[in-house]
Write a structure and sequence with these properties.
Layout (H helix, E strand, L loop, with lengths): L1 H14 L10 E5 L2 E3 L4 E5 L4 E4 L1 H6 L6 E5 H12 L8 E6 L3 E7 L2 E2 L31 H4 L1 H12 L5 H7 L4 H25 L3 E5 L7 H14 L10 E4 L5 H8 L3
Parallel strand pairs: 1-5, 6-9, 9-10
Antiparallel strand pairs: 2-3, 3-4, 6-7, 7-8
Bound molecules: zinc ion.
Zinc ion (ZN) binds next to loops.
Length: 258
């Protein structure tokens, strides 16, 4: 995989007639647990990597400084640099896709803690002994508000495999699906309020496939922040927006690592 990416990058440089000495560095976003200092991906569930020395292997193709970070962190950074979060310095982004990715940007930079494996916002437990999560715990936010979880809940209730888009659209007329969507939004609200109570960012961003639902999500979620965040109207309630860069967010953010 690294070979393919390296070759594609070199081909792109050649096609654009950009010499290597004009490149200041390479930024790479990778799903999974990333050791940024060592340049190693410790573990990636999605692509089946364990202790892959990404920086060292990529240097064989691109002999310039290389930086890596978790892809959800890169997406949050990209949105803060050039997307829906560009007017803010403290931004938290939740990516609602197959799983739930979390990215924390504080003072304009990725915050991941000093130890490896932090900022996994999708793996905060919101229901004790709840649904099984892929991480091994039960009741994580991801086990309720990922696209996978929404599809599962619909299947359980109506015995049919629907896409998230179909579920949201049919929920306008179907009582059972409406309750599933309402409960999805309530749980997402619990997760967002928890995050706000800890970090109190200026902006919460929603990305990923489900965020495309727009106001259907942001309106009730803004209300639940107003009603449930600590301090309520005596505190500062963050803005809530849908991310604007799509897949580009991770690319912009990875470049921002340099
Ligand atoms: Zn989990």
């Amino acid at each position: 995989m690294i070979d393919e990416i390296g070759k594609a990058a070199l081909a792109l440089l050649e096609q654009q007639k950009i010499p290597m000495d004009q490149c200041v560095g390479v930024g790479i976003g990778v799903p999974g647990t990333v050791d940024r200092k060592q340049g190693i991906v410790r573990y990636s569930n999605n692509i089946g990597w364990e202790d892959v020395d990404v920086v060292k292997e990529m240097e064989a193709h691109l002999p310039i400084p290389i930086y890596i970070a978790n892809d959800a962190d890169c997406a949050a950074l990209g949105e803060t640099i050039a997307g829906a979060g560009r007017d803010y310095q403290d931004v938290i982004m939740l990516t609602l896709g197959t799983g739930v990715g979390g990215g924390i940007i504080l003072d304009g930079s990725i915050y991941e803690g000093k130890g490896i494996g932090g900022s996994e916002l999708g793996h905060m437990v919101i229901v004790e002994n709840g649904e099984q999560c892929t991480c091994g715990r039960k009741g994580c936010l991801e086990a309720y508000v990922s696209a996978t979880a929404l599809i599962r809940d619909a299947r359980k209730s109506i015995g049919k495999e629907l896409t998230p888009e179909e579920i949201f659209s049919m929920a306008r007329e179907d009582e059972v699906l409406k309750e599933i969507v309402d409960s999805y939004i309530r749980r997402l609200g619990v997760g967002i309020v928890n995050i706000v109570n800890i970090f109190r960012p200026q902006l919460v961003l929603l990305g990923g496939r489900i965020a495309a639902q727009g106001e259907v999500l942001t309106k009730p979620l803004s209300e639940s922040m107003m009603q449930s965040c600590f301090g309520k109207n005596r505190s500062e309630i963050p803005e809530l927006r849908v991310a604007s860069l799509g897949n580009e967010a991770g690319i912009v953010g990875a470049a921002g690592l340099i």
